[in-house]
């Protein structure tokens, strides 16, 4: 009810500017960008979680996705020496 009252008061103001809604063509790139940003953030979280678990077992990997490809071979080489 308070929101409706605020809208009515704002609509009566002569200096009030109204914004036109975005078209579907304008929403498309925005949705793709937000989706990509979410995926990048989740990927970063997962890689950091993997690095922290491996660090607990003595595996130290530098920050960066480039080093992610080295993880399986280094872990396999180290585990092969254990058995």
Description of the structure:
The protein has a domain at 29-83. Helices cover 67% and strands 0% of the residues. The chain contains 3 helices and no strands. The protein has helices spanning 2-12, 24-56, 71-82. It is elongated, with a radius of gyration of 26 Å. The protein starts with a helix and ends with a helix.
Looking at this protein, list some descriptive labels.
83 residues, elongated, Transposase
Class by alpha and beta content:
mainly alpha
Distance between the termini: 70 Å
What about the largest sheet?
A: none
Order of helices and strands: HHH
Rg of Cα set: 26 Å
Per DSSP E runs of 2 or more residues, the count of β-strands stands at 0
- Low-confidence segments, given as residue ranges, are none
Number of helices: 3
Estimate the helix proportion, in percent.
55-70%
Protein name: Transposase
């Amino acid at each position: 009810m308070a929101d409706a009252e605020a809208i009515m008061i704002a609509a009566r103001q002569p200096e009030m500017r109204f914004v036109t809604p975005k078209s579907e063509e304008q929403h498309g790139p925005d949705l793709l960008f937000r989706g990509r940003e979410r995926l990048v953030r989740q990927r970063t979280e997962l890689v950091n979680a993997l690095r922290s678990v491996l660090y607990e077992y003595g595996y130290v990997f530098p920050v960066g996705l480039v080093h992610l490809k080295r993880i399986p071979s280094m872990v396999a080489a180290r585990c092969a020496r254990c058995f």
